[in-house]
Design goal:
Layout: H1 14-26, H2 28-39, E1 45-48, H3 49-56, H4 66-76, E2 84-88, E3 93-96, H5 98-107, E4 112-119
Parallel strand pairs: 2-4
Antiparallel strand pairs: 1-4, 2-3
Length: 122
Amino acid sequence: MAGEHWKDEPEGQDFPAAESYLSLLVGTDTAARLAKALRKKHHLRRYAAKDLLRAAGLPLLGSEDSEVAADLKKVKLGDKLSPVLLVQGVPLWVADGYHRICASYHLDEKSQVPCRIVARKP
């Protein structure tokens, strides 16, 4: 179950979710700029799930968390997960995909999570 379980590109719905989350951190104008940058095709970079959580300062959600459990179920059924969207900085911001990172960690903490990442300040 811990094999390759990622899509090649983020899903369209991930970008508005990322923009909404980012607007809480930096306001609507900056969030829109960051979301626009995330929409551009970037080469996906891969990072270990454990490193993403550490860089973001986020706790690992348990496998019983409803969204983590749903993602684990998808993988078990052979469905692929959408790459995560990140904003680089200290701390790292997981604009979209926190639950997917946690699900991947539960499969294998060293599993490589594909990410689309942009700088906080261009």
